[in-house]
Amino acid sequence: MAPCGQGRSSRWWLALLAPGLLLASGCASARLERALLADRNPAAHGHDLVALYTVHCPDVLELHVAGRPHWSGQQTVGPDGCISLREAGPIRVDGLTTPTISQVVAAKAGVPAERVSVFVAGYKSQQLHLFGAVPGEEQVVAYQGPETILDLLQRVGGLTAGAAPTEVQVIRAHVADGKPPEVFHVDLPAILFRHDQHTNVCLQPADHIHVGRNRRSRLQCCFPPWLQPLYEALCGMRRGPSN
């Protein structure tokens, strides 16, 4: 049996030494976060997301038709998958991309396709789910096309200070198509620093993204609440106010 007071002494040594031992990992994490938000690797990003996004109810479209101002403006895709072109009647846009919708509208208007522009003004039909060490802890964000995991993390503001960059996973349930679930492991350091895109997953609607917590963040739970602010400050986990 350990002598009386030995357990308490061990906890004090842990409280005093752990921040210093983990400071190096904190510096590495901060370096990766700076690289993530600096957008210094554009080759890692998806291309032409707007042209690949498929429209569904209740997305909001912005139309501009030269010579037909009464057809121009914002329209919400209805439950029937259609938008209305006034006297030309409804046109079905569900499952179409905006370049295809432009062609359909141009044909209805009897004008060249280059005189019609259509873009998504409100992404409301499809979502992605984020969990773990991300801003807000847990959030639902709009799916905006087949962007990569790198695109998404930059779009939501990066990772929290307690994130483990090598513990990022994309979970794809495949509920709609009846296939077995898939789990993709993402190696952010490899993507950002070695330009290795093998794990830079291209996201699909309803994907769940989980960002694990690093050792510093997990160890923080071992400290009493009154000691946690000191631990955060020493480990660099507490960020100052943004400018």
Please report which band the strand proportion falls in: under 5%, 5-15%, 15-25%, 25-35%, 35-45% or over 45%: 15-25%
Structurally, the number of domains stands at 2
For the biggest sheet, the summary is: 5 strands, mixed
- Helical region count? 7
Overall pLDDT, averaged?
A: 80
Query: Which structural category do the helix and sheet elements fall into?
Result: alpha+beta
- What is the CATH domain class of the largest domain? Alpha Beta
Q: Taking strands numbered 1, 2, ... along the chain, how are they ordered across the largest sheet?
A: 7-6-10-8-9
**Number of extended strands:** 10
Shape: elongated
Our measurement of the CA-to-CA distance between the termini, rounded to an integer number of angstroms, reads: 54 Å
Contiguous uncertain segments of 5+ residues: 12-18, 239-243
Radius of gyration: 24 Å
Bin the helical content: 25-40%
Q: Which fold does the CATH topology of the largest domain refer to?
A: Outer membrane lipoprotein wza fold like
**H/E series, N to C?**
HHEEEEHEEEHEEHEHH
